[in-house]
């Protein structure tokens, strides 16, 4: 896929005698004179920690919960509840195994 350098719209291929990339939003046009191939590795976006970072699990309660990790099967976990969806949806409960540190969520 090629994008317009001016407006960022997806360029269309148009073949009116000479093949060219044409922007459907602005007047940009580029003649295709040879095979076009380019690979760009996109950077991964840094994801914010919705649970509050490294200190989020410092002062939370424990409960009886079975760890989903097959190798562990611990029977106790830290938990916290956070409202991550709209107000009319129930809170999401996040767990962290006290034995292996595996984290999971229950909505």
Automatic annotation (TrEMBL):
Keyword Cell cycle tagged: no
Binding positions (Zn(2+) 1): 4, 7, 23, 26
Zinc finger (C4-type): 4-26
Domain TFIIS-type: 63-105
Any coiled-coil regions, as ranges: none
Gene Ontology terms describing biological process: termination of RNA polymerase III transcription
Domain of life: Eukaryota
Recorded GO MF terms: DNA-directed RNA polymerase activity; nucleic acid binding; zinc ion binding
UniProt keyword annotation of Transcription present: yes
Keyword annotations from UniProtKB, A to Z: DNA-directed RNA polymerase, Metal-binding, Nucleus, Transcription, Zinc, Zinc-finger
UniProt cross-references to Gene3D superfamilies, sorted A to Z: 2.20.25.10
Binding-site positions, Zn(2+) 2: 67, 72, 97, 100
GO CC list: RNA polymerase III complex
Locations listed in the record: Nucleus
Function: DNA-dependent RNA polymerase catalyzes the transcription of DNA into RNA using the four ribonucleoside triphosphates as substrates.
Sequence similarity: Belongs to the archaeal rpoM/eukaryotic RPA12/RPB9/RPC11 RNA polymerase family.
Protein name as catalogued: DNA-directed RNA polymerase subunit
UniProt source species: Triparma columacea
